[in-house]
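Example record for the data management plan.
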Amino acid sequence: MTSKGKNVPPLRRVTDPERATAKKARESWQMFTIMAEFIESAERLAELRPAVTIFGSARIKDDNPYYAIAEDIARRLSDAGFAVISGGGPGIMEAANKGAYDGQSSSVGLNIELPREQAPNRWQNISLSFRHFFARKVAFVKYADAYVVLPGGFGTLDELTEVLTLIQTGTSRRIPVILVGTTFWRGLLDWFDARLAGEGMINREDLELIQLIDEPVNVIDAIFAFYDAHGIELADAERPPTHSL
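Corresponding structural encoding:
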């Protein structure tokens, strides 16, 4: 079939029935595995809240200052009544799970199956395993009442920009997004201001979605202050708008 001089294959043309059947079977099975991940995360996490998701690098070792900061933040959050959700692996994820595990509330690991870098840490009261990044990302966002983001690489930046996009577009309710580590994040925030806001790629008010905080105790205070300022009880925050994830 041609369209304006282009070769466009006809819809559902099957040239090799056996190959097409095998491909459909693989894709159908993949859809079932995706559904299973959504169902399991809903069953395990729906009653968890209030909760805070902590993002950060898998490559940070336990002698890195950011590891100790993440552990301290998670312990304080746990003792303040928040379940703590992390990616379940090493580095900042391990520190977050360890801090929460030693505290009063649940430590949750949303593990991802990767060929390297990701092995589940042992500090998890609730441990889920995902094969699909996007199903895992939905769980990170859907069950969180705040996001705390420590230094990290591409994965951390992906998760940060994902939650900012969801909040900016109204797809997810507005909740605190806290970056920890002024030295690490300052250059990126300056670039957001100069390039993204300065050139009209975002509204300057969008920068107000982000807080930059260094002290663990101030992170917890900022989360409570956010809900106090918006007149929302954390119990009420568990009921997201109908258009949220």
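Summary line stored alongside the record: Strands lie at 2-3, 6-7, 51-55, 83-86, 107-112, 126-130, 147-149, 177-180, 210-213.
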